[in-house]
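Chain entry —
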Amino acid sequence: MAKMRNVAGEIEGSKKAMNFCIKNHIPEVDIYYDYAGIENWARGIWKTNKKGTIEYKEFYNQVKKNLKINFMKVKAHSNNKYNDIADKLAKKALFNSSNL
């Protein structure tokens, strides 16, 4: 997802949370996001026209068969403590994976 650096971390974080729930038999998850694409690509509201968004939509379509996913919008850049932490972790994870 090199061409989607601005949202790649959020997409990967969402996928990891969904995978964690599937692997641990957790039936439902709340995905908090600040970038609308996280929900809109998954639900088919926005067109998926890049490799990363296509793969994310396909992943969501498979996972939703076994997991109830609730998308929860959080306002970006609003000093939300947990959103700020998530943004920092997503950037760190993306940076670390690109240096492997």
In short: Helices lie at 5-23, 37-43, 51-63, 81-98.
